[in-house]
Amino acid sequence: MSGVRVLVGTRKGAFVLTADGKRDRWKVAGPHFPGWEIYHLKGSPANPNRIYASQTSGWFGQVMQRSDDGGETWETVGNEFAYDGVPGTHMWYDGTQHPWQFARVWHLEPSLTDPDTVYAGVEDAALFRSADGGRTWNELSGLRGHPSGPSWHPGAGGMCLHTILLDPSNSKRMFAAISAAGAFRTDDGGTTWRPINQGLRSQGIPDPIAEVGHCVHRIAMHPSRPNVLFMQKHWDVMRSDDAGDSWHEVSGNLPTDFGFPIDVHANEPETIYVVPITSDSHHFPPEGKLRVYRSRTGGNEWEALTKGLPQQDCYVNVLRDAMAVDRLDPCGIYFGTSGGQVYGSSDSGTTWVPIVRDLPAVLSVEVQTLP
Amino acid sequence: MIRVVLPQHLRALARVGEEVELQVEGPPTQRSVLDALEARYPMLRGTIRGHTTLQRRPFVRFFACEQDLSHEPADAPLPEAVANGAEPFMVVGAMAGG
Lengths: 371, 98
What we know:
The complex is a heterodimer. By secondary structure, chain A is mainly β. The model of chain A has no long low-confidence stretch (mean pLDDT 97). Chain B has one domain: Ubiquitin-like (UB roll) (Roll). Chain B is 22% helix and 20% strand. A 5-stranded mixed beta sheet of chain B has the order 2-1-5-3-4, with helices on one face. The chains are: A mainly beta, B alpha+beta.
């Protein structure tokens, strides 16, 4: 029987949750790397036993881990992320130029075809690639070297490259998103990049329709339709039908269009999920009710999913990398909260159960669907 | 033989006990001890000092013989008691945060 493996990164370690295809009985393993912040773990689509993890600490910096047995044992790999050439500067909070400084790896995106190739999105925003299983890392500096680079500035959480999407139909095309610079696309395998922010409107920046400077929180894609992208922006849920060349708003009837994660149903490319959060100053759900919203129309028309989720006195947040879907039918949806709960749904979001309730604050959730 | 005490997180990373012993050629300094430590335990590279700058990370401290040596030059000789193994060179995670 098929199964799922949920990879959970938290403020104090990593956890691996496993279940068979019914997804009703779970085994919780961990913490791995106890006491360390685990920003993200992700498995290789080409070899599910290969998992990469980003382990960080305010004291001891960045460590990279790799597992070749599905997360049971780990080995450290390379942790040197050196910007290509002279790093240069970007905009700082006070308007001055600030040297690019590596802080941590936010997101890992393994190649779709090669277990030894993996991309890393880092703070200060840059994209790195390893082609040797994480032992060495090289910057794809064309992104940071875009002429707009010196004008990029950090959001409240730092200037992080948090989203990397690989186009399964075109190995030369990738998407990346940076807070608070915006979304970018390469069509030549990462050598050159261009901003893809046309149609975004952000009232919090001097020019609401600027080419860059938008606080994109997350982008999602269904692998069968790589030209259709869905975005949760700082405010607004957006959609593009032309690989990011233009965007239009699909917030529709959401109670608030602020939030962090967004994801697409595995078997229904027009079914998408968000978790509305009250506002950028109130990082908790409206009315103390934790609700996932589902649109079966690719946006604009949304329904609240509440069954099994707390509907009173709930003031957790769900971070941008903390939602994922499995590839089973019916599709499973999973998300983790700042309160340490990991919720799962095995019926496309209609009903939810807490898989585990009392982990450290959850930073990321990924799912592997196992044969 | 130089004795080095590591903080708990780095012990777990290097899969060692509280204290490791290192051979260091010549009079030991912070630099030569850390060079030897990182050569023996490559997974510690970048966790105590920067990869290329070799600057101590801000929340890492170096203690020995009840002294804070964190601001001593990297090439300054360590105390004789460290050099002869009577006292350990301590890598400490600074008390910070909450």
